[in-house]
Amino acid sequence: MQKTRLIALTPLNGKIDKVNGLTIGLGFDSEHIIKEQNVKLHQKVNGLNIDVNALGFLLWMFYDPAKGENAEFVKINGLTISAAGYLRGVSHNGMSISLYNYGHTMNGISGTLFTTYIEKGNGIFVSSLGVYSKELNGMSLSVFNDAEMVRGIQIGGYNAGDDVKGLQIGLVNTSKKLKGLQIGLWNKNGKRSLPIINF
Question: Contacts from 130-139 at CB under 8 Å and sequence distance 24+?
Fold first, then answer.
């Protein structure tokens, strides 16, 4: 039987379906939730999530998000403040502040000290080192921005997108297909390469 809690420790165990209030702990990890293959357990947190994982920096250095399971198992609605960050499978609606974000789908505002590597982003994403998203709808602001599909704005030192509809502002901007504008020292798209402004 699934339970709803007001306060819970993370990682959540399989008996908790929903938390309406506060979660605090080490964060969310699918290894603690999904015990059998092909079993997708979807848990939800509505409220405040605080992660105090002291090993967050080590996880950032050694974790490869491309090898993580690409399935959503936890959805967070609200505010997350984390000394580490999300691993694969966590989706978020709201605001998150963390060292890194390797989540699934992010809707809202995300600020990370290091990197953001997500499947889909809708909103504003700010990161000191890099933002990567398969699909970006909104704005990414970082030294390195990379997205397969961009519908919005990329601002950074190096911006890359396969299919861009919007604006790229940076030192170097690249795209395979562009419907919009590139502003930077060097701009390259599927049709032409130009300094300063490209379209």
Answer: 131/156, 136/161
